[in-house]
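Handout, page 2. Input:
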Amino acid sequence: MSKEFSCAIKRIRFDENYHPADSTRLTTNFANLARGEHRQENLRKTLTMINNRFNALAHWDNPTADRYSVEVDIISVDMDVEGNGDTFPIIEMLKTTIVDHKENTRIDGMIGNSFSSYVRDYDFSVVLLDHFDKNPSSPPPVDFGDLHGKLFQYLLNSAAYQANFNKQPVICLSVSTSKTYQRTTNQHPVLGVEYKQDDYSLTDDYFHKMGLTVRYFMPAGSAAPLAFYFAGNLLSDYTDLELISAISTMETFQKIYRPEIYNANSTAGQVYQPSLKYQDYSLTQIVYDRAERSQMAVTQGKFTEEQFIQPYQDILEEWAASYDVQKPATKKRAA
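Output:
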């Protein structure tokens, strides 16, 4: 029987008074915004963008476009590997709550949205870089992402996750700049027009090992498709308002972080290849240090190696070898 790890879940409200926890990855979108002299202004403007986008998409019975507001909680998961009280911050996600001011009610929004993981930093910024330094033209190692994928699925099956959340997470990220996307005739009333690509990106493969399938949709009013990673059925497992909460939250972060793609002044065409070299875009009035984010990913990857991978290597390897996860037999596109 596989060893049991202990998972503890903490919540911090992402609002204009938010200060990143000591354990938060500083490359995370919400943490990056919450530092420096413009921190409170950044946070206030970000939340306004989220609320405005939500109301634009949830336009029915909402004539003045101010019926809803979105509350965002940062969900941090600490894992105790040895059961001695020493924990490591394994994963962070976001949980939204929708406030309906017309009905004076609070509605569950999406769990997931952003995805932050120190182990992913280690995989991409230590393991992968070292591999490509030694083998420049070879594909990633066959077991790349295996441990991370199993840790993620272990979390979703844990008593801590199931006590706090009643649905599987949906992670919403940027599309890959290395791939080309083709618009389809499929259109969802909330998610918008679906795009497909001929080949999966390295990120798509990595999330597949976490048990997640990907589909790409461009909501109405968006400049580019978003990548939605999910475990069940994206179109039937979630309400319209849950989907809108994910779109409004993550599109806002992407407009700030990748304005060349998501704040472009033209909309993605029939055939679309995202590019960070695209020049016809608008900047938000929000300060974001993208260069620092890239530099710190390596630092955080090495921190993970020193504080988590190396100290617990034997335990993690033995656990991963015996932990059985349910994965698709073949990697298929969702129907």
